[in-house]
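Objective 1b: paired records.
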Amino acid sequence: MDMQTKRKLNNGTQIPQLGFGVYKVPAEQTYDTVAHALELGYRHIDTASFYGNEEGVGRAIRESGISREELFVTTKVWNDDHGFNRTLRAFEKSLARLGLDYVDLYLIHWPVPDLFPETWKALEKLYHDNVTKAIGVSNFLDHHLKTLAATQEVNPAVDQIELHPKLQQKDTVDYCREQGIAVESWSPLARARYLDDPLLVQLGEKYKKSPAQFIIRWHLQHDFVVIPKSTNKDRQRQNMTVFDFNIDQHDMTLLDQLDEGLRVGSHPDNIPQ
């Protein structure tokens, strides 16, 4: 496993397992932040219309000198753009802001009640029109996925959920694995909420890695796609220096036992507006 390690999604598309998120990266910092990440070797960038920074992401990609085929770009449809036609228009606006001909993954950002099955039909059209290589969802719990399954024609390729050692969402992860849906971890470091946990500090010292590096490695060894975010250049580099060690099974089990349902973001049944 190394920086170029990819996971094959259920439609055959390859996604780099370690990506780079830009949630809450200010628009004026996005170009420099993404440009540096690409320079370091990140090839998977995750943004969203709601983040307000698609323009900076797109410019950094276009000016990077890296061929488009080497890059994996994700964006998402926001809650006030649900519905078939609204979603199609939202996608066109995202594509224009990014300045790209296609995206690699387009996601429903949150499962807005009663609307997301219709929104999914729009994503299926975009997929069949070849303007996105894969489609998926974000913040869907297993019960949302089961509702979607009743009317979907295309199985989601990805479910991007809040996931870290203290919030492991096992019911949703198990369902995704049964259905061949890749699990992608957002807020994989829980916004640094518990990087000082004694177990993480102890294990980090054992492996000569920081607690953040240790948690990212935990995600990778669980076969999750993981998208840590940092505007700090040194941390960007540290977050990708996670392919030169393995966590043994005993220590993986210790980390798995940290689960306590601790959310740092919104609950998917309480949709943010």
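Objective 1b, second protein:
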Amino acid sequence: MLDTLTRNLSQTTSIEDLETPCLVLNRSKVERNIARLNGHLWALGVALRPHLKTCKSIEVARLAMPGAYGPAAVSTLKEAEQFAAAGVRDILYAVGIAPQKLPRVQALRSAGTDLSIILDSVEQAEAVAAASAGGDPIPVLIEIDSDGHRAGIRPEDREMLTAVGRAVHEGGAELRGVLTHAGESYHCKGIAALEAMAEQERAAAVSCAATLRDAGLPCPVVSVGSTPTAHFARDLTGVTEVRAGVYIFFDLVMAGIGVCKIEDIALAVLATVVGRRPDRNLLIIDAGWMALSRDRGTAGQEVDQGYGLVCDLDGIPYPDLVVVDTNQEHGVVSLRAGSSASLPDLPIGAHILILPNHACATASQHDCYHVVDAAGTPVSAICPRFGGW
């Protein structure tokens, strides 16, 4: 359960009593989103390693992880340190390692956390092997580029893959497996494309694991994952774990590519109307890019949601009402271009909820979640979140 943190909070606090802008988190939606993915992967016989980069909160992480000790994936060593301090013991740092960060990795491991890292070059492997010479073999997963999205070794580059594997294994570190992330899935359109990307991701990771094993190298872990491919995988043969993160909250980008529905989005920014310009058919709110982020992830999708979709306090979207522009602390709300809807009659002081384009980016602007058990219910908890690297 989420710990109920007082911070001058009563069980009858309405979200309308909160200082704005702030984050509101719908607990029932979070629990439903988590159960959905867990059920899908359970049916496929594969474990989930929740990626905690989105939530950056101990309380929310406890809802997502299968147990108090993990497993978990993170994107910063600050996240690894915070979750380790809370008792999480199985953590994957899923960003390519820099040699300068290895002392922090070793400190976490020496304190009892099984922290594994990823890399995709002989240079990195040699640095990790040298750091492991002191007696603690650092566990390594080799990153695979399954879709040309970002980092990693291409599956067809077997010579490079084997060279990196040997540099890890023979150098004294622990070669734990391979890892890939189908980031291009965020640009897929339609179920068939999402299913094909999930299979492409799986096949790339499994083939690279076979390459390592054929070379006499260990590869016990085959790790894949992104929120879209995790939901649309139909066969995970050869995979040992799936990673996903934004599925806990979902967002407008995920809704735009068909991974979730608008009503599944559990995270919103509460804002207040501070200005009205009927001559220009717009409203001014106290949530700018400092509260919403600059993310425009839906701009290239079929429906452009501006800087966020505007809803009433029950989370029901106003027809075609979006945040069309942002300044540092001001947001401009108006109707989507071409809409025949009418601007709602919201007075100065009225509250609205804004669904985010990208939950990770929007949440990172705030230091806590104001939790409601369901739409329209009082605030039941305040859960701190952290930032930094």
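The chain has eleven helices and 17 strands. Residues 262-384 form a domain with the Lyase, Ornithine Decarboxylase; Chain A, domain 1 fold (CATH 2.40.37.20).
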